[in-house]
Design a protein that fits this description.
Strand content: over 45%
Helix content: 10-25%
Distance between the termini: 30 Å
Order of helices and strands: HEEEEEEHEEHE
CATH architecture: Beta Barrel
Radius of gyration: 19 Å
Protein name: Outer membrane beta-barrel protein
CATH class: Mainly Beta
Number of strands: 9
Domain Outer membrane protein beta-barrel: 18-181
Shape: elongated
Length: 208
Amino acid sequence: MKKVFLGIGVVLGTMASAQTTNDGIRFGIKGGGNLSTITDGKFKNTEHKFGFNGGVFMNVPLSSQFNFQPEVIYNYVGAKTTTEGSSSKTYSTNLGYVTVPLMVQLNVTPELYVEAGPEFGYLVNANNKLKDGNTSTTDNWSKDALDELKRFNAGGAIGLGYRITDNWGVNARYTNGFTKIGKKDTTIGKEFRNSKNENIQLGLNYTF
């Protein structure tokens, strides 16, 4: 965990130092919703679930056509399964990651851009939720349970965005995990050993 905060500190420190050397660099905040699922393995028949994301970013102009945008984002992702019977039950697995997307943006017009880049994440929390009718119960995972999954996750992202004004913008992004979630030699890990994260993000951003 210390390594994660150290890495985040390095990213934020780089953002701060870069601001003093390039007047074109701008900072911002962003947030929105996630529509995520877990693919393959035990989770082949799962549904997409709603979650949320939020964090900070730095936008660095590289030229008139290209920008570089590193971010530090908390992403709440996972998947759910619904069973039908005498009463409908929804079982969901929720995974919370601190992620660092490194996006390169191509400006199609001054307002519209497309983007692509890698995303690196660290698993910080997880829980299982069961909703049975009007009753909902949550089981938060212990540190030992979390350690049965791979804490680090890597993926790739593509997206597009639109700058509504000089400050406000909207962004849509698709992220697909490259690394498997589980460890093969653990009880919980075996359930996730062929599984990967998949996520669609939609949100607002504000640039200072």
